[in-house]
Amino acid sequence: PGVPIFTSAMAWNGSADTMGRCCLEFPVELPSLKERTVLWNAFLSRAEWPADLTPEMIAEKYVLPPGSIRRSVREARQQMLIAGEGTLTSKQLFLSCQRQLVHKLGSDAVRIESPYAWEDLILPVSQKKLLQDACDQVGYQNRIYQEWGFQNKVAYGRGVSMIFYGPPGTGKTMGAQVMANQLNLELYKVNMASVMSRYVGESEKKLDYIFEQGKKSQSILFFDEADVLFGKRSETKDAQDKYANASTAYLLQKVEEYEGILILATNFLQNFDNAFCRRFKFIIEFPFPDRERREAIWNHVFPENLKCEEEIDTAWLAEEYNFSGSQIKNIVLSASFLAAGEGTGLSMHHILTAVKREQQKTGKHMIA
Prior knowledge:
This protein is globular. The protein has a six-stranded mixed β-sheet with strand order 1-3-4-5-2-6, sandwiched between helices. The protein contains 15 helices and six strands. Helices cover 47% and strands 8% of the residues. The termini are far apart. α5 runs parallel beside α7 (172-183), α9 (202-217) runs parallel beside α10 (239-257) and α12 crosses α13 (314-320). It has helices at residues 33-43, 55-61, 66-83, 90-98, 125-139, 141-147, 172-183, 192-195, 202-217, 239-257, 274-279, 291-301, 314-320, 325-342, 348-360, and strands at 109-112, 160-165, 187-190, 220-223, 261-266, 282-285. The relative contact order is 0.10.
């Protein structure tokens, strides 16, 4: 007698014997943007909200069920008390939301810390504007598709997919870190060695799993050297070519269906299949820095607390040596270790010694 209620994460297929009972099925979906906003307002009083955060902003950023929203608020309050602070911070709320996202992405990807801000990224204005536009597409996704009704117009392809291309050391990984920092999202770099397999169908299974975990984590998936995986389709001559082309077509489908944030980085855009390029929302070039940007990088790479014995002639270094941003960072770091080993402050002598060693890596040698 009575009304039994069963709950499950999966839909009922209707195959069980109901013994003559009337069975009603009620799908409980994730709350919409408007419903999540109402929930955040219900669990957190107006006086508790940080000045730089609104219920709409956090509801738009994290798609959480009601129980997870309530736990996020409780955990953020606990962190506030542990820190001895009188008010909640947006960072505490973001971190507590991220802890509610249960996934197993860490087994096939490495989480990358995102300490960089926009001022750390030395790029042409047009490239920076594209990155900011990509952040806007991520930040306002739920509003566009749910509140404004575009989910009825766009059946698939709602994710934000990007290709970063350019020579090594020009800031592609840093660009992904800046975006993750701007959006307060975790960044995971996919381990390509774990994805690639010599067995037929294994790479596709692994990628399918990674995309599924990426969806659960609501984080940014970053594929470095992605042309290895997303290469051009070739003319079918044997069974191996047929399988390789089928694998590429499968990847194309997964990229199009994925509703999260996907960044592919490559040194060689020409190696990508044209079908991939058409389906990515942003293709952003990271060019090799010219003299002006090299000088900006040299000036920006020195920490404020760095002790210098003399003024470092960054203008001359930028004019004389054609280094990428990554190489400049390596040179300054190496020179700082040399100075520390000698017990002195940094000098041009240390910088030039590090320059010499950096050039030797590529077979170049400095004259006296």
